Amino acid sequence: MAATGERLVLVATGGGSRAISDFCAVPGASRVLLEGLVPYSRESVERLLGGPQEHSCDRRTACRLAVAAWQRAAAAATPESAIGAAVTASLVTLAPKRGSHRVHAAVQTASATHAATVELVKGARSRSQEEAVAADLVLALLSVASGRGAAAEGEECFEELGLRAEEQVVRDSFEPPEAWQRLFTGAVRAVSGRGEATAKPGAGVVVFPGSFDPLHEGHRRMARLAAEIAESSVAYELSIVNVDKPTVDFLEMRDRLARFDSDARVWLTRAATFVEKTELFPRAVFVMGADTYRRLGDPRYYGGSEESAAAAVERIASAIEGLIVFGRSSGGRFEDASQIEAPEALRRKAYFVSEREFRMDVSSTEIRRKATGCGTP
Fold it and tell me: Is the pTM of this model over 0.85?
């Protein structure tokens, strides 16, 4: 790694912090390692990732930590030379765990995301021994991700973890199209979800922005009805950046996009705010739910400044062609978007979809909880 100029930030939480000291024990480590971080408490992890996580120990959290580490490395070096590595673990503690003992590791570079998971047999090791497995897992994944040797050599790295016969490393890696890589590093602001390098957002289109985490039938129904109202096809927009949160990794991009129909038009962007979206899609009609509509003019989303909120609303209202706003169900009660208090400049541009036309009783958060098993921390 030193010979190729790579610079590393390594994060460990819940276990695996020995990887930092093991790395530092190698002569010349200071030429590669920029930082070793151990955000051990839940609060420390949340500060690093910009907010609460649904699970403190899973692949998604490991990947997000790796991206956060990559961003710190890129800020100190260059995007191309930066490597972010992370490990999160649930290991032996003083009280017996109800859930499994497991380790998740991830490595992020400008060109790929790598992840590895192993579930350990409970009671087979001491805390110190499980810590060693966690450290060795992230170092093995780092060795493979940094391109040091062929795939066969990488497999040998994982064989040296000393796992039992019933323990297996589950790996997932994804190197996306070059267009996605350029978006990730900030070289471009928007690319086609299909990775078409020459595709550019256009003006006067109908755009449905969202995280789509995951895309569900409610979103599809909203898009179909919006297309009928606007008499135009709808393009989805998924921003890979959020204010104060790590960029979405390549595995997450791949998995979210896999839920879209093959003929769906999807844009990946770096437009974290709605003002930025209007700059990318001038004179567009935007599709949104009641919660997004409420946030457009709320000072809380502009640093608490009423002046900033008013200025943003003015920019949005002057840049868009219109809004198609859907109500939402909350606690068994339908919230009519037309009853939400909002600046008049936005209300004049809005078409409010009634409960009779559409009602969505589905939650992306609930879908993720069911998919991952909410009982496991």
Answer: yes
